[in-house]
Amino acid sequence: MGLSELDLNLGALEIGTLISSILFGVTNVQLYMYSRRKFKDRFHVQGLVVTLWTFEAIHTVILWVYIYRLTVTFYGVPSALKQTSWELNMSGFFEGIISGTVQAFFAYRVLAISGNWIVPVILGQALHCK
């Protein structure tokens, strides 16, 4: 793997993780505001919010551990980018759980607002096809 390919792969990973971390900071502010206003949401909705935040925190930490492993532990070993690691596998796992849960909750809220099963079913299928 040439240096330019290494720069492209590692650079994209670092920029993506940095942007993801910034958005996690925004999520922290949203969680703080949500908890301060004491909305009268049902317990399962509050639990869902805290669970999703926890999964997102784990996902962010795993991404930074992966970057540390590639840039510090395996410094100067370009072949490390070709190997699949537990960090990369777990990152995809948590990303799938987070996005699937958020999309399912969105479809549930559309059902609650519209009172019609057709719209959430079509929406769920459209979100599933992404």
Let me know the average pLDDT.
Answer: 85
Taken together, the total number of domains comes to 1
Strand content: under 5%
Number of strand segments: 0
Major pleated sheet: none
Question: What is Rg?
Answer: 19 Å
Give a structural overview.
Helix 1 runs antiparallel to helix 2 and helix 3 packs antiparallel against helix 4. The chain has one domain. The chain has 130 residues and is mainly α. The longest helix has 35 residues. The protein is built from four helices and no strands. The mean pLDDT is 85.
Short description:
The protein has four helices and no strands. It has one domain (3-128). It has helices at residues 3-37, 43-73, 86-114, 118-128.
Question: Which key features would you list for this structure?
Answer:
mainly alpha, 4 helices, 130 residues
Topology record:
Elements: H1 3-37, H2 43-73, H3 86-114, H4 118-128
